[in-house]
Amino acid sequence: MKNIFIIGFLFVLSGCSKTYLDRNSLTQLGEASFWKTEQDAILGINGIYDALQDRIMYSGSLNGTAGMPMYDNFGDNAYNAYKFEGPGNFMIANIDPSGAFFSDLWTSLYKGVGRANLAIESIQKMPASAISDASKQALLGQALFLRSLFYMHLAVYYGDVPLILNVQKLEESYVSKNTYKEVSDQVIKDLKSSADMLPASYPAAQYGYATKGAALGLLSRFLLYNKDYQGVLDATNAILTLGYTLNPSYTQLFTEQGEFSKEILFSVRFSQDVSNNSETFSSTYLAQPKVDQQPMPNMVNDYYCTDGRPITSSPLYNANTPKENRDPRLTASVYFRNDIFLTDINRVFTGNTATKFGLKKYIRSSASTTGISVFNPGGQDFIVIRYADVLLMRAEALLELNQLDEVYPLVNQVRARVNMPAIETVEGTGLSQDALREIVRHERRVELAFEGLRFFDLKRWGAMEGAFQRVTADKIAGYGAFYQGEKSQIFPIPQNELNANANLLQNPVWQ
Predict the structure, then answer these.
(1) Which of 74, 146, 403, 434 is at 20 to 30 A from 471, Cα to Cα?
(2) CA distances from residue 465 to 407, 451, 468 in whole angstroms, order as listed
(3) Which one, of 27, 7, 30, 39, lies nearest residue 126 by Cα?
(4) Number of H helices, E strands in the chain
(5) Is residue 457 a contact partner of residue 466, using CB atoms and an 8 Å limit?
(6) In the prediction, which pLDDT does 31 show?
């Protein structure tokens, strides 16, 4: 596998993909000499995927701006010890619009948007003699999906942002913001079109490209965020027919051995051998597991015992042996003191983190696979959407539509994978909407912990204040002064963007 660089009127492509960049290298290709063949179109699409591998997107891990796999640091699930990476300073209200985190994320997202716009415009113009209609539709569907993914992040994290849907000339670059609704409407429209255009699957050699399931899954996530519960039911109902299943092993799913699981709707792909990053999110830190993403005590305590009851009421819980008789997802996700966390060198986790816990989910359990012993990147893919999330999104939509009977089997299916008891066995039947809401929200927390979705959930539920209270109660040194109200739930537009473009206005809460 080789890196690709397309320079000139196109964009620069570089990265470490297993699928997206498995093509012959090109150099010095201008717009006039490109977009002539189907292979050109494939290379152009690969360049959009490459943006997902930016450090600030899905590969960033240690000693730099935090990537999206670290977004559980925004909230009550995990602690960002290296506060300069972004989430830590945000959590302690010690960051402003000039922060590199906000600027790097904004730049990367709009880089992806620009690449998608170029691909969409160029592929649409390609004649039938250059590309088959089926290939054109599939590639356009991928470009629309990826543009929607970038814009969903912009809308959720920044609110009102410029909506750019074509290739800009320099004189067109000084744009104003569009409303959240305008951006949201476009994302939903494009995802519906993408779902219609994309195939349900690809040949094995093309694994990793967006499918119909990926588009429907992202659509479900964004509709849920917008509280369009009927829309979520419609989208997830279509997903249920596409053959996705829960991976038999929860633990294996978050390793390289689980990368081709039928549970995965969409993942960002990485390969150790061709990585040009100093590290990716799966890197191993020799002194302790993932020093900059440490599970919070309140998160660890929220995992139930194997009888399905909280540790505060279960007779199975023993504070002297806190990981025994617990939901298996806990020991699949968190290292406790005296656990072996680097198996090849028999390295013991001493509990030497600020929270006393270590992150296990997604983190490699060996010190080296290529002779590099420190900050070794690893080749672990990052799952963006998976089937368990789909089931829980559907359960939440049914719950909010007061169709309560249909919530039970969905949550039970997720619990059964890890041999946790059904709702009826523990909490009972005929539960109120409020009682079921607590169950569904708890299930999302423990099932999806450390997958970068906690901030998204807390913001949607209007539950950020309660999360900050739990963080405060954990008494982690230096973690306790938080932004209040809406400022805790939205990022500022980067100051350098405001300085360069007088037509942009700052988010009101950050003025």
Answers:
(1) 434
(2) 27, 21, 5
(3) 39
(4) 17, 8
(5) no
(6) 62
Query: What is the pLDDT, as a whole number, of residue 1?
Result: 24
**Neighbouring C-beta atoms of residue 263, cutoff 10 Å:** 20
pLDDT tens by residue, 162-189: 999 999 887 788 999 999 999 999 999 9
When pLDDT is cut at 50, 70 and 90, the band that residue 64 belongs to is confident
Task: Report the DSSP beta bridge partners of residue 78.
Answer: 295
Global pTM value: 0.92
Q: Do residues 290 and 358 lie in contact, with contact meaning Cβ atoms separated by under 8 Å?
A: yes
Q: How far is 216 from 199, CA to CA, in rounded Å? A: 12
Beta bridge partners of 178: 161
Q: Is the pLDDT of residue 47 over 60?
A: yes
* Look-up of token digits 């290739």: 167
**Sign of the C-alpha dihedral, residues 252, 254, 259, 265?**
positive
Sequence-separated (6 or more) residues with CB below 8 Å from residue 240: none
Distance separating alpha carbons of residues 247 and 253, to the nearest angstrom: 7
Q: What are phi and psi of 494, to 5 degrees?
A: -55, 140
- Cβ atoms within 10 Å of 103's Cβ, excluding its own: 19
Beta bridge partners of 382: 268
Beta bridge partners of 334: 359
Q: Is 282 within 8 Å of 366 (Cβ atoms)?
A: no
Task: Reduce the DSSP state of residue 265 to 3 states and report it.
Answer: strand
C-alpha distances in Å from residue 455, one per residue of 9, 71, 87, 220: 37, 7, 11, 17
Task: Return d(Cα 379, Cα 256) in angstroms, integer.
Answer: 7
